[in-house]
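Exercise 7b. Backbone tokens:
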């Protein structure tokens, strides 16, 4: 029993680390994008000023030189630190292979229970219907899908009241699979220090903030990247207290 408990703890730690790694990648991507626009504008205005300022004005020329140097230093930092750090997850390679869908779902639910579900007293119920008999086995990156599904289930627990009901609806055909997690949102629980948590505090604080239209909480970036790598889609509805929240992961489940 102790060995099983240790294995579960290690598994939870690895899953949390992967979620944090992809969230870091997303944050760095935002930083890189949001800083480049004003830096480009500063560089352009410096060029305009250069044409307007008297070349004999030494102080003005030093100021322009300082502006250019500052811009070049910031761009260099973005290229050598931010972009280099992102390189590992920028292009997500997946390893497709056939696996049983039911076993994947059972594993993800059990991992989610062990990570936070049991501690919060939430109940996970699974509903599934294979439209095609061939859907009993799908071809995709099993580990990446397991990570994404685990994160969706844990995020639902993080944003639920203790004892809540969380539903996982699974549907599949011979060519695609969809996982939909539904629960009653309670976003205030993200910042409740009296409750157990498994996701890191920075992720919880950001998820508690109002999200931009069409955007998911940063901690769910792993789900977004895995969906895209499989030619699929990830959708997250805004968290509104007392209303039904939904996370949906759809993927192509063939090698094509």
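Sequence design result:
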């Amino acid at each position: 029993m102790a060995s099983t408990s240790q294995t579960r703890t290690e598994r939870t730690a690895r899953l949390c680390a992967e979620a944090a790694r992809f969230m870091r990648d997303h944050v760095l991507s935002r930083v890189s994008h949001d800083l480049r626009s004003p830096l480009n504008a500063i560089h352009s205005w410096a060029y305009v000023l250069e044409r307007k300022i008297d070349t004999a004005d030494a102080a003005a020329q030093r100021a322009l030189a300082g502006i250019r140097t500052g811009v070049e230093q910031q761009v260099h930092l973005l290229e050598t630190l931010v972009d280099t750090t992102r390189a590992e997850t920028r292009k997500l390679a997946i390893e497709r292979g056939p696996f049983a869908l039911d076993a994947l779902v059972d594993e993800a639910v059990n991992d989610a229970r062990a990570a936070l579900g049991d501690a919060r007293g939430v109940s996970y119920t699974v509903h599934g219907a294979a439209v095609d008999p061939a859907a009993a086995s799908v071809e995709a990156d099993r580990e990446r899908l397991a990570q994404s599904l685990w994160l969706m289930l844990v995020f639902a627990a993080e944003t639920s009241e203790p004892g809540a009901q969380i539903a996982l609806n699974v549907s599949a055909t011979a060519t695609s699979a969809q996982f939909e997690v539904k629960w009653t949102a309670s976003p205030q629980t993200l910042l409740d220090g009296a409750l157990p948590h498994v996701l890191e505090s920075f992720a919880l604080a950001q998820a508690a903030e109002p999200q931009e239209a069409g955007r998911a909480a940063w901690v769910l970036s792993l789900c977004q990247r895995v969906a895209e790598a499989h030619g699929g889609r990830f959708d997250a509805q805004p968290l509104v207290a007392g209303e039904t929240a939904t996370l949906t992961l759809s993927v192509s489940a063939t090698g094509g």
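Instructor comment: Strands lie at 97-100, 123-130, 137-140, 165-172, 176-184, 233-236, 244-252. The chain has six helices and seven strands.
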